[in-house]
Amino acid sequence: MNELPHLANIFDRLKRGCHLGPDDEPEFSALSARPKEYAGYFAGIGLTLVHHERDFFYFEPDNPEAVPDTLPRIAVFSYIIIDHAANQGRPIEEFIFGQNFLVTNLPHFSLDRYSALMRQVDVHDFGDLRALLNRMEQIGWVKVKGLGEDEFRFLRPFHRVFSKCLELAQPPEITQANASQPVET
Amino acid sequence: MKVNPQSFFNFCANHATLLRSLADHGGEISEADAMRLIRANPSTVEELPETAWRRLCELQILIPTEPGSEVFLMADPVARLLTYLFNEANPATPEMIRGYVLSLETTGKRLARALDEENVQQVKLAFEEVGLALRRIHADLNETQHAILAEVARYKTERSRVTVREKYRRIVHWMERYVEPMIDIVRADGPLRAAFDETERLLQRAREDALFNDHPALARNLRFLRLVGVHALRVFTQCRKEIQPLYESLRRSSFIAEGAARALEKLQAEGLSKWGNEHLIGISVWRFQNVPGDAAISLALRRVIEHPPEPPPVLEFAAEREDPGELVRLMWLDSLSELVREELPVEDLMGWLLKKYPARNTADVLAGFSGLVFHRDFQATFTDKKLIAYQTTDGEIEASPLILTST
User: Fold this and answer.
1) What gap in Å lies between CA B367 and CA B354, rounded to an integer?
2) Considering the entire predicted model, what is its pTM?
3) Which residues numbered 109-168 in A keep a CB inside 8 Å of some CB on B?
4) Residue B85 contacts by C-beta under 8 Å, 6 or more apart in sequence?
5) Prediction ipTM score
6) Which residues on A lie below 8 Å from B287 (Cβ)?
7) Which parts of A16-125 fold into alpha helices (H)?
8) pLDDT at site A177
């Protein structure tokens, strides 16, 4: 167990809510090479390492009583970009992952309805959006740094939002049946 | 009313783009909509829109949906001609193919009867009908494949603002209306194959019974029969392969869009407070509470390291001892407040204590002093008078006098 490579880095990032995907090297390769061993190690200290079906890793979240403010913001931001993508008529995953986005071109303030939804989570302008994107970068859902000015792209762990949408689209009884079956390594 | 072919084709030659637009429009069209299309697609010759509209009706390109109706349809023969000219295809419906199968079965029965009756004329007629049905099936299959492939290509390249969910509904329509039912008909154990097998058996019998002597034509029909059977299955299997990835992709996208829309609708309708955690995507974050910083940890360690060693306290359990020192001291401290109360105000508390209890050591004097200073019944006032050196039994305390009064 002590020979697991990059263990300290992996643990340090995962415990802060980060998702590790192919853009996170060398940690991702290390995890991908020995997922069961890492999962076993973390299980020993009470943490569940989830290996998502789209091939990225994260710690299974608790159900905290106090929800951090960023979670509703991230959720509303994500649902709006999906709603916008659906209105464009292109397959949503192709739309989300197939291009870089400019912050100022995001649809979140393009409709009154979207603006009102963003206001509900205290996101009022593009400055707030940038702050939100920085948080999303910290958890490994988008990449901001290293791209053009005001530019970002979505990373593979954004599939967690799609999984949530599919869950929400299902009838309640199916959702309940699936809720107890996380995709685990 | 017969339409003059010369006039018809002359009109068509001058209004090709208009005819294309009318064909693309499809379905029913009002006069107003037709006039808009006429204005948007002017003739190659100078002409009033009203004239073009009148000619469309006179030439029976557009016909009323019912006598006297103000809603029009493109006449079916014209629509088919345009489909042919513009290389577009209309898919055959499963009902059409079932109709052919039924037609083949009926023809087969007539052929069987003619063979039984050795009626050469009827055999010949039935043979021709079989050939015609096969040619129609073949042509319709090709047209269906063409239509489905064109539809798939259109989906992939279409940039119009049609929502994903709308596209999904359309592709589901194609899948459920054409591809899946058609595969049920044309598969190896389906009704088309059964009808073909029966027809082939009868054609073979006609050859064996020598009731039909055109052997090359017979062989051609048999070959065509087998070809159409294989072709039908291949066409629809290919169509399904083409359409399936699009169907899957749109199906997934449609569900994703539906989930997001439901979440947003609920937020919009009920507000954030009632939105609930089920719409959030949980993220594991360790929340640290009351965690000491590095400086605090260093200080605690330094205190432990630098603390002078001292023996553990020894408890006295002997019951016969009459004057337990700590208890006596505690009782003395407790009595001070009552004693000082009688002499308030005291101008110099430390001086008062040492005068009253000169045998007390420094620790006792300070304990008594602080007990009185912080006592809730008294008011202590610090002064900046000249420092006084107070002598105790084991040391000296230097301080300005402190005035104690009652509150």
Assistant:
1) 12
2) 0.56
3) 113, 116-117, 120-121, 139, 160-162, 164-168
4) none
5) 0.85
6) 64
7) 27-33, 35-43, 70-88, 92-97, 112-120
8) 46
